[in-house]
Amino acid sequence: MDPTALTILAKAFASAIVMGIGSIAPALGEGNAVCKALEGIARQPEASSDLRSTMILGCAITESTGIYSLVIAMLILFAL
């Protein structure tokens, strides 16, 4: 195998690892946030609008971790 093919393979493997690890935490965090928000809505339906807006804000902040890992994976693939 020539060195160029090994470099491409290493870049693909590294970006796959970055995306795999970088997507686990947001998925777990968002799942936990939605679970707790639904429990709160079930206990106090009158507070559903406050809980929903807080949950959506928290999920948006949590998702930024996944977006950062996507950016890093793209940098590994195309910029290095």
Describe the structure.
The chain has 2 helices and no strands. By secondary structure, the chain is mainly α. It has a single domain, classed as Up-down Bundle (F1FO ATP Synthase). It is rod-shaped, with a radius of gyration of 19 Å. The chain starts with a helix and ends with a helix. 6% of the residues are buried. The mean pLDDT is 88.
What is the secondary structure topology, with strand pairs?
Elements: H1 3-43, H2 48-79
Helix pairs in contact: 1-2
List keywords for this structure.
single chain; 80 residues; mainly alpha; F1FO ATP Synthase; 2 helices; 91% helix; 0% strand; rod-shaped
Count, helices: 2
Shape: rod-shaped
Mean pLDDT: 88
Biggest sheet features = none
Going by CATH, the homologous superfamily would be F1F0 ATP synthase subunit C
CATH hierarchy class name: Mainly Alpha
Percent helix: over 70%
* Total domains: 1
Instruction: Name the CATH architecture.
Output: Up-down Bundle
Helix-strand pattern, N to C?
A: HH
